[in-house]
């Protein structure tokens, strides 16, 4: 187990190193030169270090993805890669210096990870096409086996940061200024007002009445106090929305899209109510030059309050996501038009506007005309990248379709469980086929095995800043968790454990084979069996407690799950991990679902909230546990108490007891009822007595 311990020590070292600035000097090795090269100190926005030859020639730039783009991994923890590009837009090399990815902490060989990152050398980012997960090797290195999602995150961090550095450093032919999307700074409400980052239009009731052609008895009181801001620049967006809110909104848009914040107080609502039906806000629209941009309900988020110090309390606040494809240019003036809700009167149109122009301090001036320009930066800047999770979902659309069909079938089985289990042979064949599909497709092909690591990631996201895009990076895992969350409300935690867990189905199917070849099963006394349940709950609480101190240490302890070894990496790991997984599977040959019963921390994590389930759909007869123990003996995980009660914390909802419930050849109650309905044979008459 020395490799496990060394991996843990390495992980702790990486975590400690992530707190310090990345050492960009390692980038010197990325430049092929007969003479030594010099990596200077990082400077500028975004920060990057000039790399120069011995004669002073500028060769390119070195940068840290964490410093440039704030890169985070699939687990929501910092991910830092040092990379370098030439002035022509060619990646010269990359190396990962800090990460907290569970699959990479223990599991993936360091050589495989280093080779993947190093293979970005020579990649040309000038064509401007964003690198998508579905692209072949000519568009980038193959993903690391067993870590596809993390590989995609690493790839996106390198290329997104490289394009940002190239765009900011290399002269371009475009002479127009561009929006500063990198500078970080927090401002108070008064500071935002002073520099013109937030604009206001106060419309009195008298002005509104005049435009509407009506009269108002209190003309000086406000009709609507309207506020407008371009929230794309980090100083404006983070000040108004807070860091978490700003990051959440930026995670929903591409790199060239924009955010516009609108807030108001007073009698009149800028939203109205018609948008709930039409999907478009009919009272407001953006106008820029001759272009009118409608604001869609799907591209807006309601905000409860402004975060800037000293900000007023507004009646309604919303952030609108403005797509680059709409033609909106954040560097140019624009106007927000508000329809007051009536036809134009003699006093003028019943529409008021609020003009906005981003302050000059948020614009980056173009290079002087004498500066030589190259097409690299303009090509990179012209490319609007979609969020990486959207590319991942598109590349896995067929797998998503198969999973969607599987979940639909499972939902039908659960809703119609009485009909399904009433036909015993059909139920057993259906369940066996479904388990095979779960094992082969979800497990071996799609690697969609849920883990207690997902639970830890979710809990820590709630504590440190929830970002939807992190959970959207793996579409199958996201869809599975969504289904599991809903199913727990109706049926409890057993739906996942019994039907959608690849390792669980592997145990059950292997046990069925063991029974067929005559392997004798071990019956654990219920008293001991009940006490062994505690192990998995203690395990989950321990992992959760450790994660509050060190998430990497928790990931290491989470290796109690054999999922990564068996399903994700298909036993292609160091021998201690393989031996552990095979030992659990071997125990499962004698005690059905041995791991599920006593050791699974994920099952324990799901059992705790699953107690809130709304329905109890498993049927029982009064004889169950009193006169008959067939279901208790045949239960897959021995979740039925000797007195007949089903423990919902342990039940995996396999429905085997329900098949017995409807089986007249098995169920004692049905046998007794059949006997009562069977008419007694007519009495036979006695033969006449023989006379003597």
UniProtKB/TrEMBL annotation:
Transmembrane spans: 398-416, 436-459, 479-506, 537-557, 577-596
Domain FMN-binding: 73-165
Origin superkingdom: Bacteria
Listed GO CC annotations: plasma membrane
Record localization: Cell membrane
SMART domains reported for this sequence: FMN_bind
Protein name: Nitrous oxide expression regulator, NosR
Species: Bradyrhizobium oligotrophicum S58
Lineage, broadest ranks: Bacteria, Pseudomonadati, Pseudomonadota, Alphaproteobacteria, Hyphomicrobiales
